[in-house]
Give the backbone structure.
Amino acid sequence: MIKFDTVHKRFPNGTTAVHDLTLEMPEGGITVLVGSSGCGKTTTLRMVNRMVEPTSGTIRLAGKDIREQDAAELRRGIGYVIQQSGLFPHRTVLDNIATVPLLLGWGRRKARARASELLETVGLTAETGKRYPHQLSGGQQQRVGVARALAGDPAVLLMDEPFGAVDPVVRIQLQDELLRLQQELNKTIVFVTHDIDEAVRLGDRIAVFRTGGHLVQCAPPAELLARPADDFVAGFLGEERELKLLSLMTLADVPVAPKTTVRTVRDDEPAPGPESGPCLVVNAKGEPLGWREAKAPTAKTPAAKTPSGDQGPLLPIRPLRDTDSLLAALNESIASPAPAGLIARVDAEGVLKGVTSRDAIHEHAGRRHGRARDGESI
Ligand SMILES: Nc1ncnc2c1ncn2[C@@H]1O[C@H](COP(=O)(O)OP(=O)(O)OP(=O)(O)O)[C@@H](O)[C@H]1O
């Protein structure tokens, strides 16, 4: 969709921001640009919509050299989201979102109808549309920024640190929203971030730049994590590189031991005595609720007579589905009070189907990691 061919950008003051960049950004995919500060990410992004003109080289959009298109027209077909959301302060949220449709000549009524539809798409209420940007939280402003960028239904979306100014919890929510939207909309997205975890979560491909505008490696996240091209990339990915790789692998083919491996008890039944160890408490539907470690019997209340209410606290758990990551499974198994660090595996409806031990997760993770290092897909 977007093709950079030996693109060079040298600013008039002599700074080389981008050095002979050759890079393809596939249609319908999210390409994330990462790298140290000043390595040319923003310049690369802004060359796509001609806010910055290359010194040399060619950029093609859907096969067409962007220099052959009128810059204003080109920009109307490309959504652009920046960190400070860039909303017009004196226009309502709805009018902000309607900006591009109006420029495209849709007429006021149709443009506003489109804006209302998009408010809902990005998870905001109709009432929010009547407010002004300063009356919204940072996270809400970013959602409006995304809605505004999507309003003209562009095939390409450029996002420059769009979630950089919000707290970590809202940031994860916005990332999830973007992934959900992308499943529906299938835009070609170029996304700039400083945050490698964000890049791994969102990217279909990650391009790592280093100072001087040099592209060092561009690869899908799993390939990048398993086989960084050099020490710079490895350093950039951080010391928990191997754990990050586990976040991309699912539990799907890790064996499930039958539920008879572990003692289960209904939440409305008394737990067995402490000599039988922790048991898994499930509700009437068979959904796991937690582990209960029975209290040691005392002289006053021997094990056999201990009423269920007295049998130790319920330690809540996170039951895991096949679609959950190996990292989530490992995390859960470390906290598990059950022998062998057992985790509860559930089906799509959340009903217990069995358990998996920490050793099984480890072994599987090691094997899959080895395969990834050898270049196999994970
Ligand atoms: N208009 C300009 N004139 C001169 N130099 C510029 C201009 N814009 C950017 N630069 C320089 O080009 C280099 C690349 O800048 P760019 O903003 O693309 O980097 P970046 O990777 O996005 O940085 P950051 O992560 O800090 O936002 C930097 O050295 C910057 O100072």
In short: Residues 303-309 have pLDDT under 50 and may be disordered. Residues 11, 13, 15, 17, 35, 37-43, 194 surround adenosine-5'-triphosphate (CB under 6 Å). The first strand starts at residue 2 and ends at 10. The radius of gyration is 26 Å.
